[in-house]
Fold:
Amino acid sequence: MIKDEEKKHSTPMQQQSMANYLSPLVRGIKPSGIRRFFDLVSTRKDVITLGVGEPDFVTPWHVREAAVYALETGKTQYTSNAGMPELREAICQYLDNEFAVAYNPADEILVTVGGSEAIDLALRALITPGDEILIPEPCYISYSPITALTGGKPVGIETYAKDHFKLKAESLQAVITPRSKILVLSYPSNPTGASMDYEDWLPIAKIVEENDLIVISDEIYAELTYDSKHVSFAAMPGMKDRTILVSGFSKAFAMTGWRMGYACGHPDIIAAMLKIHQFTVMCAPIMGQYAALEALQHGLEEKNRMVEAYNQRRRLVVKGFRDIGLDCHEPQGAFYAFPSIDSTGLTSEQFAQRLLEEANVAAVPGDVFGLGGEGHLRCSYATSVTNLIEAMDRIGNFVHKLKTEG
Amino acid sequence: MNELQLKVLDLLKEDARRDAELIATMLAVSTEEVKQTIAELEQDHVIVKYATVVNWSKIDDQKVTALIEVQITPERGRGFEGIAERIYLYPEVKSVYLMSGAYDLCVEVEGKNLKEVASFVSNKLSPIDAVLSTKTFFILKKYKQDGIIFEEHEGDHRLMVSP
Structure:
């Protein structure tokens, strides 16, 4: 297990606080709830963790080998700011083949340091202080803090288990004001596993059009869509120019640590994002770009194999939770189940903490993901079948114990 | 071979102890269907046996294994079948493959020590009339067998909890 190095304070006691020097915007950001839970889990042994937001597969060897070869042949320089032309071309080809969205590799795509950088760049390129940024929740934990850093105002939109956590037009409509500027979409969803199909998108696209919104669509889990094909918001009629499509290699190609992502969109917006990108990081690391290129050129079969494995585990955990007696909607994408723990009478925090202490299973309490997350538990099924079976067994015994305690 | 059969085989190949109910859940089909599929695969000898992959070097470093390249003269009418059978019926022989290229059969032989394997080659294998020549290679270490890595170093390096 990786030690938490940030916890080691080497500073002498008499050192004075520097907090007053910090930017109020930074001070205003709350520490992540995941972080707190991570510290708690790190103190324990023999934990089975369903708390991990990344694939359990190691990057396929041929992809790693491509990066090694890049180093061996002296590929250690900057690349073009937007990313190597052949990688941009490969990404555009891939997006067109897989999701029917056509971008011009010359000026409609930017290779970034993970999807995270792309989200940061998009928000920074677009927000004027005071703009309202609409964020369906529960969702990935970064959108609100980054928005706040730019002086934008994050506005949460609650989604509900009864709708399988899909975004509903009436919920979106209800938060629209004259200051609404950006809608951040993230489907398939971390943490709910919700995914949106063509019919689901239609009324959303209509509201986006009527209110002249820009959409940042984080589709990092697109390939991990089960039972149906992922529908990119950028592929909806009339939406391409208003949408910044953000994705990357982390999830589908098991490449989280490489930090390889990209953004696609209108040339004007990509040019603005590129401006920030070139002054902050110059370019994504070159060996990672070679690895990403290899993944697109020769890694699709391996990718499909991993997606099939996630799908099998998804069925296993959903049935597991239902057998235990916890309500669990069927997640259509990503690698998370988001069961309701309401019936136990505990809050998410209480449940997660006691599950850890009494059953040695780690899962993330739903409330850390924002509105609508309370009463749920995020369980990642990106772990081995053996671990999942053992974890479901432990959770089952724990819930049974809770219920007999009354 | 249909898709269900292939998926069932994949899951059993990973772990032969998986029961029909678990496989049914993972593949979203009924337990009956999985049982039926497995029964058919067994009947057709597609599934030959449920065996355990053992890393013998952990417990018995006395054992030696050799791969032997064997050149043979095929028999009229039967090709390599009869001679292959004569060889694979010996219990010392762990596997036999018919190969393309410079030799005909690849024979894996296991023995308690070098001498035992050498004696098998000189007393049993070479004297067979159809055998023209043999080349014996002793295996020093087994790293991977049937897709299974014996000493996995990669492990799980992920943070216990991450967003």
